[in-house]
Specification:
InterPro entries: MFS, MFS_dom, MFS_trans_sf. The protein is an all-alpha fold. Helix 11 packs across helix 12, helix 11 packs across helix 18 and helix 16 runs antiparallel to helix 21. The chain starts with a helix and ends in a 17-residue tail after the last helix.
């Protein structure tokens, strides 16, 4: 009987009692595969660069590294609003289904990269951009599909499962990428193909539009100004972490300044355009609703803090803690993902429960409480020694995941339930834009802060450590005054850069014991652990501040006049 019911839900209409669970299952799979791919490349970069024979630490190749990191998230951030709007106009399920198909095709193309060197990197970056279009189609419409399919009393639970699966996917990608990269770097893209094929066929067969579809026109000027402005701004922030003109960072680079200033001006033009068109892609009037505005602000701050945590923990584990505990540098990506599992477990434990309870007791206290729990975990990580006891570290990252899980579903429910049904696609896209933009911002913001922290103490530490091992003073001084971003990327990728910095000529002049010490597992981690902690203090204090401000924003209630009426939802 149950089997027949589900078969009917798969082939029948949206009024079937099991349809909402089919919609939840498929959209959760879509969110999972989209977000896994935002981090699976992150942990696999050393294997990818080795596979295409490209040195990721070469100054000329840093741009390839940055675009592989941020290209997917940047395109997702730019397009999710437009694709949510297209879902409102032409059907959320139609856009969602096309996204699943595009994501699958681009995964095949990525795994078949035929080039080496820079050509191979450009192939991967280009197809990742197209893959991000498919991922944005999934992310922009999944929450709207669920909001249409579930009644208000169950919506928090459904969104909780969906959103927590998406957030957990970014951490599952770390483990999966580490495992697959150990075997073959192409496997990190092949793994998407069977899941994508199944998900695409399932979505086309089982999902149906339940929301109100309203015909409309595309806001071309709004799309253009938004895409140009946001891309310029986020690219400028990201390139600001690269050294320029003798400075440790590139904030004085004319191109970076042009991106930052020009991006802000074009976004201001975008806001003006949106007030002048009849059917804007970004309905700015929604921000008059305090629940919608404050919920998105809290989501942005949480996304920046979460993205920064992810990057910092990878650097901490791969560059310092794992080598100090006997792991070879080649093994560190895999084990970094494994040791971060408590973070994922925390998300999975709290998310669905928080969604269910927020349906009963309201979302605001859960969203605010989740961010305060995150702030508490950042404070614990702040006082943790660099060479920590793993169980203390595991408890703190589990607590952070728990806080993120408590926040995610209630925040999404708060945002999505505050808008009228015909704008849910646009609202879902706007929410996803803030989330994805926060992840890209976290690269620039947290890396910049970490570089600033390293700049104060790393040069003297490097100089002293190298000369103590017999490196001539002038050579040690030159190396110590190199921009610290190279050292940071080395730790991020799980590399020991000392051999590359010294070169074979200088290493060959040193006594064998000193050369072995310099290139061994423990010298570099011991050397950078103190300066790294100095940078970590700055980073985690900012994360605490963001979490507290986000918690306060989550408590803001909507004004009576701004609160849209709840429209009927298919159950």
């Amino acid at each position: 009987m149950l089997q027949q019911g589900f078969r009917g839900a798969l082939s029948g209409g949206t009024d079937h009692p099991h349809y909402k669970w089919v919609a939840l299952s498929n959209t959760t799979l879509g969110m999972l595969i989209a977000t896994i791919n935002s981090s699976i490349v992150l942990i696999s970069l050393p294997a990818i660069f080795n596979g295409i024979h490209l040195d990721p630490l070469s100054p000329g190749n840093v741009s390839y590294l940055l675009w592989m990191l941020m290209g997917y998230m940047l395109v997702s951030a730019v397009l999710v609003v437009t694709l949510g709007r297209l879902g409102d106009m032409y059907g959320r399920v139609r856009i969602y289904n096309a996204g699943f198909a595009l994501f699958t095709v681009t995964s095949v193309a990525l795994s078949l990269d035929p080039f080496d060197g820079g050509g191979g990197a450009l192939w991967l970056i280009g197809w990742r951009v197209l893959q991000a279009v498919g991922g944005a189609m999934l992310m922009a419409n999944s929450a709207a599909i669920l909001t249409d399919a579930f009644p208000a009393a169950q919506r928090g639970m459904a969104l909780g499962v969906n959103i927590v699966a998406g957030i957990a996917g970014s951490f599952i990608g770390l483990v999966l990428g580490g495992l697959l990269a150990e075997w073959n770097w192409r496997a990190i893209f092949w793994v998407n193909v069977p899941i994508g094929v199944i998900g695409t066929l399932w979505a086309y067969r089982s999902l149906h539009d339940t929301g109100v579809r309203r015909p409309g026109r595309i806001d071309w000027w709004g799309n253009l100004t938004f895409a140009v402005g946001l891309t310029a701004l986020l690219a400028g922030i990201t390139y600001g972490i690269q050294p320029y003109g003798g400075h440790t960072q590139g904030w004085t680079n004319p191109w970076v300044l042009a991106g930052l200033i020009g991006g802000v001006l074009v976004l201001a033009l975008f806001a003006w355009v949106e007030t002048r068109v009849a059917e804007p892609m970004f309905p700015l009037g929604l921000f008059r609703n305090r629940a919608f505005a404050s919920g998105n602000i809290a989501g942005l701050l949480a996304s920046i803090a979460r993205g920064g945590l992810q990057f910092m923990l990878i650097i901490w584990l791969q560059g310092i803690w794992l080598p100090l505990h006997g792991y070879r540098y080649e093994e560190t990506p895999l084990w970094a993902g494994i040791y971060l599992l408590p973070l994922t477990v925390g998300f999975l434990a709290a998310g669905p429960i928080a969604g269910h309870l927020s349906d009963k007791y309201g979302p605001r206290l859960f969203a605010a409480g989740g961010l305060l729990v995150m702030a508490l975990s950042f404070g614990g990580l702040l006082i943790l020694p660099t060479d920590f006891s793993y169980w203390a570290f595991a408890a703190l990252v589990f607590l952070n995941g728990l806080g993120g899980g408590l926040f995610a579903a209630p925040n999404t429910s708060l945002v999505m339930s505050s808008v009228p049904a015909h704008l849910r696609g646009a609202a879902s896209g706007m929410r996803a834009t803030f989330q994805n933009a926060g992840m890209v911002l976290s690269i620039g913001v947290f890396f910049s802060l970490m570089v600033a922290g390293l700049s104060t103490s790393l040069p003297a530490t490097l100089d002293t450590g190298l000369t103590a091992q017999g490196v001539p003073g002038p050579a040690a001084h030159t190396i110590a005054n190199l921009p610290p971003v190279g050292t940071l990327f080395a730790a991020f990728l799980g590399y020991n850069p000392v051999a590359a910095l010294l070169g074979p000529g200088l290493l060959g002049q040193l006594p064998a014991a000193n050369a072995a010490t310099l290139t061994g597992r423990e010298f570099f981690p011991h050397l950078v652990s103190g300066p790294f902690h100095d940078g970590l203090v700055i980073v985690f204090w900012l994360a605490i501040g963001m979490s507290v401000v986000g918690a306060l924003a989550s408590l803001i209630k909507a004004g009576r006049r701004a609160e849209p009426a709840e429209e009927p939802v298919a159950g």
